[in-house]
Amino acid sequence: EVQLVESGGVSVQPGGSLRLSCAATGYMFSTYWMHWVRQAPGKGLVWVSRINEHGTITDYADSVKGRFTISRDNAKNTLYLQMNSLRAEDTAVYYCGRDVAGANDYWGQGTLVTVSS
Amino acid sequence: DIVMTQSPLSLPVTPGEPASISCRSSQSLLHSNGNHFFSWYLQKPGQSPQVLIYWGSNRASGVPDRFSGSGAGTDFTLKISRVQAEDVGVYYCMQGLQTPYTFGQGTKLEIK
Question: For A26, which DSSP code?
Fold first, then answer.
């Protein structure tokens, strides 16, 4: 059974940093692109970033470019999102997802990041 | 960026009745491999999103056959043949053709 489990979400002050993790089990992690998608409280879904199977291709939403870094450790079957210079508008539930030809076929349960002073 | 526009944004439905949601993209979602990189998701209350339809019309594994997707180019439709109580939630369309991937605003389906 495919499972994605996010962790690392906490409350942090503006300007702070955080690293989210997404542990993948039940499939060959190293053969799939992966994504991060976020959802602010009461709002819709917003794509954040994606990474290819090998970690050599990454893309970001303009709103996080230069502040967030997506990476992966295929030996540990884990996806990461390093978040720096956090702003109040980064407050959201962050989901990791597995990409299959342009669709997210599996999603994690999400981890809440709150940026507040 | 490709803009995704859903309608309606609110959809009250009587159980057993059909329902339909539309999504329009600002440019064609046809990939060079011949598939449309377009998908539908349902986010039930308090849950993560789940995929319903991918490549425009392919039902994902485990999705009931009352859900169907159609469309091509820039116009897509999700149909529920007979709405059931467990279908409540917010439905999103998404394009995965080019980054940034973009979602529609969401359509909230509620039971009358």
Answer: S
A50-71 confidence digits (pLDDT tens): 999 999 999 999 999 999 999 9
User: Mean pLDDT across chain A, nearest whole number?
Assistant: 97
Locate B18 and state its tokens: 């059909």
Selected for mutation to probe chain B from A4, A33, A34, A47 (highest B CB count within 10 Å) is A47
Distance of CA A60 to the CA centre of its chain: 11
**Beta-carbon pairs below 8 A across chains A and B:** 72
What is the 8-class DSSP label of residue B101?
P
Give the integer Cα–Cα distance in Å for B5 and B75: 10
- Give mean pLDDT, residues A25-42: 97
Q: Do A95 and A76 touch, CB atoms closer than 8 A?
A: no
Q: Is A13 exposed, middle or buried (0-12, 13-18, 19+ CB in 10 A)?
A: exposed
Q: How confident is the model at residue B15 (pLDDT cuts 50, 70, 90)?
A: very high
User: Is some CB atom of chain A closer than 8 A to the CB atom of B54?
Assistant: yes
Q: Which residues contact B17 (CB under 8 A, 6 or more apart)?
A: B82, B83
